[in-house]
Design goal:
It is built from 15 helices and 14 strands. It is α/β, with parallel strands linked by helices. It has 2 domains: 141 residues, 2-Layer Sandwich (Nucleotidyltransferase, domain 5); 188 residues, ATPase, nucleotide binding domain (Nucleotidyltransferase, domain 5, 2-Layer Sandwich). An 8-stranded mixed sheet has the order 5-4-3-2-1-6-8-7, with helices on both faces. 43% of the residues are buried. The structure holds adenosine-5'-diphosphate (ADP). The site of adenosine-5'-diphosphate has 13 residues, from helix 10 and helix 12.
Length: 395
C-alpha cells in the first residue's frame, strides 16, 4: 500500500470503516463496530483475508475508536501508515458544497448544522473528534452526502413556504446519498462508453434508506430526499412522502409531540410499518407465503418509485439511462421487474432474463433497442470517498 486512506462512516450506534489504498484502489481492511453506547458491543475486523471478532462494551465513539486502534495494532494494518482519514458526513447544509479538509472552523460549522440533521450529524462529529484525537498528524476530510445535490436549481430545492422563515432557518431541499448517486452515474457513463456530461440519467439508490435522482448532462437537477432524509421513496423504516398535515393530525390523535411523530415516521414506518419487516429478503418470503400486508407494502413501494421515475422523465424531457443500485436495487430482481415492467409504455424495455442474473458486476438489463437503457450498477461509497479524500489532499 502506498497511500492508505482510512474511511469512517459513523452512525449513532455503529462505525463502519475501510482502509483503501488510494493509488491501487484496493481494500486493505474493513470492519464494523456495533452497539456503541449499549451493552454487548461488537467489533468485526477483516485484514488480509482473516476475520477477527471482539465482544466489548463501548461507552461512546471515542471508546470505540480507542479499541479500534488496539485492534489495528494487534492484527494490522499499521495505522501509522495511514495518510488521511475520510469521514462520511451526512449534512453539509448550504455551507459545504464539496469535500473539505477538516479544521477547527469546519468542525464549528458542522456543529452549527446539527439541528438540520439531529439523527445523523452528531454521531459524525463525535467520530471526527475521536478520530482526530487518535490520528492527530494526518489530514481529516469531510465528504458530504448533500454535496452532489448542491447543483439543484432553485425551482427544485425551494419549498413553497414563507420565504423569510425558509431563509432564516435554511429550509430547502438538500438531498442525500449524493456520494452514491455521483459514483453510480459516472460508472454508467463508463459502462455505456459515453461522455458523462452528455447523458441524462435517473438513478435509484434503494438500500435501507432510498432515494432517486435526476441528472441532466452530468448535473444533478432533482432528488427525492429533502431537508432531511425522511422525504421521498418508501424505505426500510421511513415513510417517505406523506401529507405534511399528517404531523399535526397524528400529534392530536396519538397525543404525541413533534419529536414523537418524527420518531414514528423515521423508525416505525416504511416497509417495517406496512409489512413488519425491513429486509426485502424477508418481505419476498412473506409475499411468497401469501402475506397480504407484505404484498401491499411491495405495491406501495413500487408505485411510489414508478411515480417518481415518471416525474423525473418529465423533468428531464429525455432519459438515456435508468439505474438501480444499493442493497435492494442490486439484489432484488422482483422490485426491478415490477418497476420497469410498468414503465414499458414509456420506453423502458426490460430484458427479463438479464434482470434475473445475479452478479456483482455493472450490467445492462434492458432489451436491445430499448429507448432508455436500464442498468444495475453496484455502488461503492467507500471507494468514492477514498477518491474524494485523495483529491482533497492533493494525492
Ligand atoms: P444501507 O442503507 O444500510 O447501506 P444497503 O444498501 O446495504 O443499506 O441495503 C440493505 C438492504 O438491502 C437490506 O435491508 C435488504 O432489504 C436489501 N437486500 C440485501 N440483500 C438482498 C437480497 N439478496 N435480496 C433482496 N434484498 C436484499
Amino acid at each position: 500500500m502506498t497511500t492508505p486512506i482510512l474511511l469512517l462512516n459513523c452512525g449513532s450506534s455503529s462505525i463502519k470503516y475501510q482502509v483503501i489504498d488510494g493509488d491501487s484502489e484496493q481494500v486493505a481492511a474493513s470492519g464494523i463496530i456495533q452497539r456503541i453506547g449499549q451493552a454487548s458491543g461488537t467489533l468485526d475486523h477483516t485484514y488480509q483475508g482473516h476475520d477477527h471478532h471482539l465482544d466489548a462494551d463501548f461507552a461512546d465513539h471515542a471508546a470505540a475508536l480507542d479499541q479500534l486502534v488496539k485492534v489495528f495494532a494487534e492484527f494490522g494494518p499499521n495505522l501509522d501508515e495511514v495518510r488521511a482519514v475520510g469521514h462520511r458526513t451526512v449534512h453539509g447544509g448550504e455551507a459545504f458544497r464539496s469535500t473539505v479538509v477538516i479544521d477547527d472552523a469546519v468542525l464549528d460549522k458542522l456543529r452549527e448544522l446539527s439541528p438540520l440533521a439531529p439523527l445523523h450529524n452528531p454521531p459524525g462529529i463525535a467520530g471526527i473528534e475521536a478520530a482526530r484525537a487518535v490520528l492527530p498528524d494526518v489530514p481529516h476530510v469531510a465528504i458530504f452526502d448533500t454535496a452532489f445535490f448542491a447543483t439543484l436549481p432553485a425551482e427544485a430545492y425551494t419549498y413553497a413556504i414563507d420565504k423569510d422563515v425558509a431563509r432564516t432557518h435554511a429550509v430547502r431541499k438538500y438531498g442525500f446519498h449524493g456520494t452514491s448517486h455521483s459514483y453510480v452515474s459516472q460508472k454508467v457513463a463508463e459502462v455505456l462508453g459515453r461522455p458523462y456530461d452528455g447523458l441524462n440519467q435517473i438513478v435509484c439508490h434503494l438500500g435501507n434508506g432510498a432515494s432517486i435522482s435526476a441528472i441532466r448532462d452530468g448535473v444533478a437537477v432533482e432528488t427525492s430526499m429533502g431537508l432531511t432524509p425522511l422525504a421521498g421513496l418508501v424505505m426500510g423504516t421511513r415513510s417517505g412522502d406523506v401529507d405534511p398535515g399528517l404531523h399535526a393530525y397524528l400529534g392530536r390523535v396519538l397525543d404525541l409531540d413533534l419529536v414523537g411523530v418524527d420518531d414514528l415516521l423515521n423508525k416505525r414506518s416504511g416497509m417495517l410499518g406496512l409489512a413488519g419487516a425491513t429486509d426485502f429478503r424477508d418481505i419476498n418470503s412473506l409475499i411468497e407465503s401469501g402475506d397480504a400486508d407484505a404484498r401491499l407494502a411491495m405495491d406501495v413501494y413500487v408505485h411510489r418509485l414508478v411515480s417518481y421515475i415518471g416525474s423525473y422523465l418529465a423533468v428531464l424531457g429525455h432519459v438515456d439511462a435508468l439505474t438501480f443500485t444499493a442493497g435492494v436495487g442490486e439484489n432484488d430482481a422482483l422490485v426491478r421487474s415490477e418497476v420497469v415492467t410498468r414503465l414499458e409504455p414509456l420506453g423502458f424495455w426490460l430484458d427479463a432474463e438479464a434482470n434475473a442474473v445475479r452478479s456483482k458486476q455493472p450490467r445492462v438489463i434492458s432489451r436491445p433497442g430499448s429507448p432508455v437503457t436500464v442498468l444495475v450498477v453496484p455502488t461503492n461509497e467507500e471507494l468514492a470517498m477514498a477518491r474524494e479524500t485523495m483529491a482533497a489532499i492533493g494525492g
